[in-house]
Amino acid sequence: NKFFLNQTGSLRRRTASALIALGLVALVGTAEAQRAVPGDYDGDAKTDVLVTRAIGDFKFWFARFSNETFNVPLLFGLASDTEAAGDFHGDGKVRPAVTRAINGFMTWYILTPAGQVEERLFGLENDLLLAAYMDQDDIADQVAIRSLAGGLNWFASLSASSTVGHFQWGLDGDTAYVADTNGNGVDDAIVVRNVGGFKNWFVRTDSGVGSAGILFGLDSDAALQPADLDGDGIADFIVRRETAGFSYFFVRLNNADGTEKGIESLQFGLTTDAVIVGNNFNADLANFTAFRRGASVTDQAYSFVRLPGISDPNMIAVPFGLSGDTLISPQGLPLAPEEDDSGSGSLGAVCSRTTSPFSGFLWKPASTDSGGSREGKPMVAWKSGPPTSNSCLQVYAQNGTVVSQFGMYASGGKYGARWYSGWGCGDGKSASQIAQAAQAAAGSNNVYLQGSGGACVGPINPTSRNGSL
User: Fold this and answer.
1) pLDDT at 68 (0 to 100)
2) Domain-by-domain residue ranges, the chain?
């Protein structure tokens, strides 16, 4: 059917004329072969602003192109699918793609240049899935990052050779990225780890050479997607530090051999903004964008697009999307915003601090377990520091209101401790019911899950996969 519910794992193509009629016509058609600029959906070598919106049980894609035109909304995927867009056909345009867990395996649904939908089976449930250039052609490869025996195992479906590459890099709990750190046109594996109060960056190049940890940033900083901020073709490391309501960014400019070229800093945006790094003006020089939401999910959202590089503080304000939309990063992945969690009578009253979903934590909107009341209900699998002393976890709206609760099913095992809304003290709510309750309580679909010692994990979009194991 047109919503791609087929459960087979073979590669399939279907005509998507019904979907194309709904919009994103710029995404259909041919273009000269070239490496797509991150987040470029119309082929002009500039990053576009993309959001998705759950309407009923389905996902709609909205684009604001760099030439200031807009698409008609495109229906592509189910509300519970996870975005993983990329240029999987090598024509220089990023196109919508979503992933879906079916019987423990991950199926990718990818819009083709001809307006068809390809189904590709790659990865296992609980993998972190993304698009990257892991070989030297201009076709994005599917990447699955899997936690096994305490380490991170990387699998890449290589388009140039039609083989699957595999290597181990990183530990459970590391934050994983891909970026070209030596300028040879192939993405390298990067993991970031907190060690002794600081962030350590570990790089494995495509040739298989691994680096010792590069110390850059405090453990309280947030690492961002590495990007080329000085135009030398080499990705630089970025951390975000929040001070008095404002965001400060520190950039380690890298040489091709991994040595430091210099450290730069800048102030940009508010702590509640979602910040992404793309190429909105220049294909060879990255820039920051701050996506700012209003108090209500129906409020106008704004993208504040900073001019390229580091030294120019000027920006352009772009009104686009609603505050309840999911922002899609230039790397094709959904990005949840930071929410205000301070003050009495708010989230700060029940959560002393919040942590974004991480490797070792997974929220699934619909469990595939065959277990009566558990089946089809949201669940949490928690391997890294789970609050196993609490058999009943509260789910909070943005203002601290309890909107659901999950009962513990298991305190350990292959996937760590697990809680379900359909088990024990759980209230049996579906992911969409939790999202609706959160919106009614606080004007936002995002929720926060109770953890240990007053900490909470969030923001979480209840109808999408959050985190990874």
Assistant:
1) 85
2) 126-144+164-271, 347-468
